[in-house]
Amino acid sequence: VHIRHSDKAGLARRKIPTEDFLPHIDAYLTNGGGQVYLATDSSRVLEYAQRNWRHVKLIAQGGIVRSAVRKPVFRQGSHNRTNAEVLVDILAMARCQFMIHGYSAVSESTHYMNLGLHNRSVDLE
Predict the structure, then answer these.
(1) Residue 16, CA distances (Å) to 6, 35, 42, 81 in order
(2) What is the pLDDT of residue 6?
(3) Please, which contacts does 80-86 make with residues 24 or more away whose CB atoms are closer than 8 Å?
(4) Mean pLDDT across the chain, nearest whole number?
(5) pTM of the predicted model, to two decimals?
(6) pLDDT value at residue 78
(7) What would the 3-class secondary structure string for 10-71 be?
């Protein structure tokens, strides 16, 4: 699951409510899915998921730069650090069997690394 929130500010960039992802996650789990990898740039999204998705075995990178406001993570701290963290998320998501996401170059890049995701993903935008 890839949820971006910190830099979705314009009219063309809809901020998908975090709760909109849950029906798709539940369908994945109901059909044999086990763990859910959550890639997000928002500390609020991670906290929401940990608090409200207790039935989900959630995996997420720890100790990375996340934003609690609308300031993008690439404007906080080292570009090298945030780039490396995003690359780890891309590699991890590319190893997933199914993907739920919104429009994002990060999400799109996982499809090029795992061509099976073209047919096994839900784009909520």
Answers:
(1) 11, 22, 12, 26
(2) 65
(3) 85/61
(4) 87
(5) 0.87
(6) 76
(7) CCCCCCCCHHHHHHHHHHHHHCCCCEEECEECEHHHHHHHHHHCCCCEEECCCCCCCECCCC
